[in-house]
Amino acid sequence: MIRSNPGRGSRKTLSDIFAEPDPLGLLEVKIRQAIPSGDQRLMACFQEIEQFMARHGHEPDRDANDFEEAKLGTRLAAIRANPDQVAILEDRDAFGLLHPAQGQKDVDTFSMPAQPTDVVPTEPEPQAAHRLTSQNSVMSLDDILASDTLGLLDTGDESLFNLRHVPRYEKRDMPEDIAQRKHCDDFYRFETLFEKVHQQLNAGELETKSFQKESQISEGDMFILNGMLCIADQAGKESVGAGKKFNPRLRVVFSNGTESNLLLRSLARALYKDESGRRILQRDNTFNELQGITHHDNRVGAVYILQSLSQNPKIQSIRNLYKIGYTEHSVESRIIDADKDRTFLEAPVRIVTTFECYNFNPHRFERLIHAMLGQQRVNMTLRSQDGSTYKPREWFDVELDTAREVIRRIIDGSIVDYRIDNTTGKLLRKSTDKTL
Predict the structure, then answer these.
(1) Same domain, 107 and 131
(2) Is 164 a domain residue?
(3) Which stretches make up the Bacteriophage T5 Orf172 DNA-binding domain (predicted)?
(4) Are residues 186 and 133 in the same domain?
(5) Which of 113-127, 171-185, 250-264 has the lowest mean pLDDT?
(6) What is the pLDDT of residue 252?
(7) Max CA separation in the chain (angstroms)
(8) Alpha helices of 212-354 — where are they, by DSSP H?
């Protein structure tokens, strides 16, 4: 085996190594600069403000549209508000920036003083460090930005408020009319219908199925949406929005007494999303449709006229004593246990006549009757079975024919042409005052 012995003369010295070419820059060592003290950073910041003053002839405005000017203006305002920093910079304030009330020098004829170029970084004095950290209480984001006199929050294009990778918000086109839920003023037209459907569902007389096809939504159709009954009362004639599918705006009434102007496809989408959304399968309505009967033609209640069968002499003394009232259910069920109810004078009653109410507000109907016969309301005090006293409110001293005629005139809308004669208790036409 042959060994090579280079000998001492072939070894390279450290100088030889550094003298050789270094294409990768491995031997280049960057000398770290000493960190400037707090006072030096403050002076450098103030120097930038003075340079702006010299270039533009006015101090930087913190409300300026230019970001750099606004930044310098904010720093200047923060320095002025800090007495310790003013004391440090006061000796080198060439333009009077620290005391603007005393007036500023003419920058057109004033030249910037020479700045030292050989500043040797030194450690900050303890007192100076204390001055730099004794800031006012921070109460808001503006306070934080205003206290940044050294520009620590300034990162150029990477500013906290420069959102480079966040898509800009653009105002989107919104539909002209957004569905709103509001109180249903004519809910009385649907209240009895909802109660009837509830009863039929509980009794198993009606069936339901999952919602499948939006094209099946028609006027009068009923659904269960979010556990609540609703009915498509009316449908618009024209389609709303883009697309080829027919998409009218519906009037949807809910069983809680509210209504909404939903689009057909919006209602369908809500029924699809609702796991409990169902369509109520109605019985065959072909015969009703041929007669022109719709979901609006439903009984909403009954107005009745009753006669008391009380044996109380005080009650029997009133010859034409009748009760006029309203019930949403059958009159027969309403008068059960009449002998225990003050409304019926705690005595049995006889049904004289009833008027079925369709397609109008029965509560308003009842109030009109009572207002028309207000002078005929009996004014008597009775003693109850429990010993207390009460006054009946729905009993009238009026002839039966007059009571019936008042009800008929309210139904056909002609009641506005009549009045009650307070002397005779008869119904009179206003124009001729002819007794009916």
Answers:
(1) yes
(2) no
(3) 316-410
(4) no
(5) 113-127
(6) 92
(7) 152
(8) 264-273, 286-290, 313-316, 331-334
Q: What is the pLDDT of residue 161?
A: 56
Give the Cα separation of 363 and 328 in Å (integer): 10
For residues 270 and 225, the answer to whether their CB atoms sit within 8 Å is yes
Cα distance between residue 99 and residue 81, in whole Å: 11
Say if residues 182 and 259 touch (Cβ distance below 8 Å).
yes
The answer to whether residue 246 sits within a structural domain is yes
Instruction: Quote the CA–CA distance of 130 and 41 in Å, as a whole number.
Output: 15
Tokens representing 170 are 């653009």
Tens of pLDDT, residues 216-275: 678 888 899 988 999 988 887 777 765 667 788 889 999 999 999 888 888 888 888 888
What confidence score (pLDDT) does residue 415 get? 86
Which phi and psi angles does 333 have, rounded to 5°?
-70, -25
Distances in whole angstroms, Cα of residue 9 to Cα of each of 5, 6, 106, 265: 11, 8, 73, 96
Same domain as 285, residue 303:
no
Domain that residue 308 falls in: 299-429
Domain total for the chain?
3
Task: Indicate if 324 and 234 belong to the same structural domain.
Answer: no
Q: Which residues contact 280 (CB under 8 A, 6 or more apart)?
A: 197, 201, 206, 207, 208, 221, 222, 223, 224, 229
- 124 lies in the same domain as 215: no
- Judge if 343 and 361 occupy the same domain: yes
Long-range contacts of 245-249 (CB under 8 A, 24+ apart): 246/215, 249/177
Q: In what order do the strands lie in the sheet with 207-210?
A: 181-183, 258-260, 250-254, 228-235, 222-225, 278-281, 207-210
Residues 346, 424: one domain?
Answer: yes
Of residues 155 and 276, the one with the higher pLDDT is 276
The residue written with tokens 């049995």 in the block is 348
Burial 33-67 (b: 16+ CB within 10 A, else e): eeebbbbbbbbebbebbbebbeeeeebbebeeeee
Cross-strand bridge partners of residue 251: 234
Tokens, residue 87: 């004391």
Q: In the block, which residue shows the tokens 């750099």?
A: 68
Predicted TM-score (pTM) of the model is 0.38
**Same domain assignment for residues 144 and 127:** yes
